[in-house]
Amino acid sequence: MSKKIYGYIRVSTVDQNEDRQWIAMKEQAVPHKNVYIDKQSGRDFNRPQYKVLVKKLRPGDLLYVLSIDRLGRNYEEIQKQWRLLTKEIGVDICVLDMPLLDTRNGKDLMGTFIADLVLQILSFVAQSERENIRTRQAQGIAAAKARGVRFGRPPKPLPENYHSVYQRWKDGTITGSAAAKECGIPLSTFRYWSEK
User: Fold this and answer.
1) What's the rounded Cα separation, in Å, for the pair 134 and 54?
2) Partners of residue 5 on adjacent β-strands
3) Is the confidence at residue 124, as pLDDT, over 80?
């Protein structure tokens, strides 16, 4: 059975563009059908396409990843997955933007030591960057809230008849369901507005 070439692409959100990673895979002549893409966070490896990819990999196959943070952003998880792929399954991995992380080279003790050391440093950096992103994001949200920026959908305007219907409901003349129906809104919305 011939060795196969695979590629893995990950972006954190659906809005992010994976073109740069696709270009890198094409430059390595990775067959389109052998490229697996996940559009979700790198905090763990519970990603659908990554799981499918791991099941397809066989000893001697080659996996391309553009950078270590595209593989993941959790230090311990990256280490664990690297061992699973290279030691347990027997796959070669090439991290394109870091030539020292190419398991095809330096299979001797020194080469393995250098690759493991670089992997530890880069996976530490990937997790640190993830934590920094979360901190900056929280700080940005807090600053925006302090300026009065509101997040979420804009509030739905009250129906014109809401106050008269609300008063009748409050007086016990009509039920909450009837009040919501008269206002043309769901009962849960009527209850939410009535508690304000």
Assistant:
1) 28
2) 62
3) no
Count of beta carbons in the 10 Å neighbourhood of residue 77: 18
Whether the CB-CB separation of 79 and 119 falls below 8 Å is answered with yes
pLDDT digits (tens, 9 = 90+) for 126-180: 677 777 777 888 888 888 888 888 888 887 788 899 999 999 999 999 999 999 9
Direct distance between the N- and C-terminal alpha carbons of the chain, in angstroms, rounded to an integer: 68
CB contact set of 128 (below 8 Å; sequence gap of 6+)? none
How far is residue 124 from each of residues 21, 100, 129, measured CA to CA in Å? 22, 16, 9
Helices (H), the chain: 19-27, 48-56, 68-71, 75-83, 109-146, 162-170, 176-183, 187-194
From the list 2, 12, 41, 128, the catalytic residue is 12
What amino acid is encoded at 178 in this protein? Answer: A
CA 140 to chain centre: 20
CB 101, CB 122: distance < 8 Å: yes
- Active-site annotation holds for 194: no
pLDDT of residue 10: 93
Q: What is the pLDDT of residues 61-86, one digit of tens each?
A: 999 999 888 888 777 888 888 889 98
Give the H or E element holding residue 94: strand 92-95
